[in-house]
Specification:
With 77 residues, the chain is mostly helical. The protein is 69% helix and 0% strand.
């Protein structure tokens, strides 16, 4: 029998992953904008928009999957 993770642990992992991924986007944007005026502000904007948009698109992705049937009674043979 495998031990399942708690809901709280899964939420914590999701939040920390989003922070990590958004931080990566911020650093990448900072590298891209490093020679432009307001590089820090631009990078913050990109990272903020990325976080919001990806949360929205992930939610949309999950909702779309609600329309894809799961056939658990599929007979083999």
């Amino acid at each position: 029998m495998t031990k399942k993770e708690s809901h709280l642990r899964s939420i914590f992992k999701a939040v920390t992953w989003r922070i990590w991924a958004t931080g990566t986007t911020f650093v990448l944007a900072l590298i891209v904008f490093q020679d432009t005026p307001n590089a820090l502000e631009k990078s913050t904007l990109v990272a903020g928009l990325e976080m919001i948009l990806k949360l929205f698109f992930y939610y949309l992705h999950e909702r779309i999957w609600q329309y894809i049937p799961i056939n658990k009674n599929k007979k083999s043979g």
